[in-house]
C-alpha cells in the first residue's frame, strides 16, 4: 500500500447532478499541488516498470498525441513559471529534468504533469479513446478501453444510462477550442493507492453512502479541445485525502 496524500481537495466536493459539468478558464487547466513530487515519482516508476499498463497509443491517435505534447509545453510555458522549458528538455518544479522525446509524446507527458491524459477523437458518430497515459486508474484498465467508444468505456458505471450517455456524447461534440469544461467525482476508498486498476469488492463506497472508508478520492476531470486535430483531451487530476480531513 502506497500512501501519497494531499492535505485537502481544492474545490467543493458536494454532490452535483451528473454529469455536473461547468466551464473553466484556459489558464486553470493543469494543476500542481502539495503531492506533486511524490505523485510524479510514482508516475515515473509506473512508466518505467509497467509502461504497457499505463500508456497506449493507437495508429489513429498519433497525430493528436503529437499536438497534445506541443500544446502542453506551450501551456506550461505560458501559465506555470515553475517549469523551465528548453528546446530538448524540461526542468520540472521538483528539479527533475525530463527529455522531450518527440517519438514518444504520451510518455513524455506522463513524466511532465500530474494529470493523466486521455485523447478522445470522433470516429463516425462517437468519440473513441485513441491514446492515453493513465498512471492513476480508479477501477478500470487502459488495456480494456483503448480503441473503444465513449459509451463502452463507461458501460460498467451504474449511473451511466442511455440518457446520460447521450448527454456526455453531446458534451464531447460541443466543447469548443479555448473553452474547456470540468467536473469532479467523489468516492471513499479502503486503500489510498493511486494505481488501482482493479475494483475490489467492498473497496469503494459512493459519497454519501452508509459505509465509510478511511480515504476520500476525487478526480478533477477536464475536457479540452485541441485546435488542429480537434481531438478532445480528457485530463484527470487525482486527489486522495484522509476521510477524516
* Helix and strand pattern: EHHEHEEEHEEHHHEEEEE
Mean pLDDT reading: 89
Regarding quaternary structure, what we see is single chain
Task: Give me the secondary-structure category.
Answer: alpha+beta
Descriptive overview:
The chain is an alpha+beta fold. Helices cover 27% and strands 25% of the residues. The protein has 7 helices and 12 strands. The protein has helices at residues 36-49, 51-54, 62-79, 105-112, 142-145, 150-153, 162-174, and strands at 22-23, 55-57, 84-85, 89-91, 97-99, 116-123, 126-133, 181-184, 187-189, 204-206, 215-225, 232-242. The strands form 2 sheets. Strands 1, 2, 6, 7, 8, 9, 10, 11 and 12 form a 9-stranded antiparallel beta sheet that branches. A 3-stranded antiparallel beta sheet has the order 3-4-5, covered by helices on one side. α1 packs antiparallel against α4 (105-112) and α3 packs parallel to α4. The model has no long low-confidence stretch (mean pLDDT 89).
Amino acid at each position: 500500500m502506497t500512501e501519497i496524500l494531499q492535505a485537502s481537495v481544492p474545490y467543493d466536493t458536494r454532490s452535483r447532478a451528473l454529469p455536473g459539468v461547468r466551464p473553466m478558464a484556459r489558464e486553470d487547466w493543469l494543476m500542481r499541488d502539495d503531492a506533486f513530487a511524490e505523485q510524479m515519482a510514482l508516475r515515473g516508476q509506473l512508466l518505467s516498470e509497467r509502461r504497457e499498463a499505463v500508456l497506449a497509443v493507437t495508429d489513429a491517435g498519433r497525430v493528436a498525441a503529437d499536438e497534445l505534447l506541443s500544446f502542453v509545453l506551450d501551456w506550461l510555458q505560458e501559465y506555470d513559471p515553475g517549469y523551465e522549458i528548453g528546446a530538448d528538455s524540461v526542468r520540472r518544479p521538483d528539479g527533475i529534468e525530463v527529455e522531450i522525446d518527440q517519438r514518444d509524446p504520451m510518455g513524455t507527458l506522463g513524466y511532465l504533469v500530474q494529470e493523466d491524459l486521455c485523447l478522445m477523437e470522433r470516429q463516425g458518430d462517437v468519440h473513441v479513446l485513441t491514446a492515453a497515459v493513465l498512471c492513476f486508474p480508479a477501477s478500470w484498465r487502459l488495456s480494456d478501453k483503448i480503441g473503444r467508444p465513449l459509451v463502452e468505456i463507461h458501460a460498467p458505471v451504474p449511473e451511466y444510462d442511455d440518457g446520460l450517455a447521450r448527454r456526455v456524447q453531446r458534451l464531447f461534440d460541443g466543447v469548443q477550442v479555448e473553452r474547456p469544461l470540468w467536473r469532479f467525482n467523489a468516492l471513499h476508498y479502503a486503500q489510498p493507492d493511486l494505481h488501482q486498476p482493479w475494483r475490489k469488492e467492498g473497496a469503494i463506497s459512493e459519497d454519501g453512502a452508509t459505509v465509510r472508508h478511511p480515504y476520500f478520492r476525487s478526480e478533477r476531470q477536464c475536457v479540452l479541445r485541441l485546435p488542429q486535430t480537434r481531438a478532445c483531451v480528457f485530463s484527470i487530476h487525482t486527489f486522495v485525502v484522509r476521510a477524516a480531513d
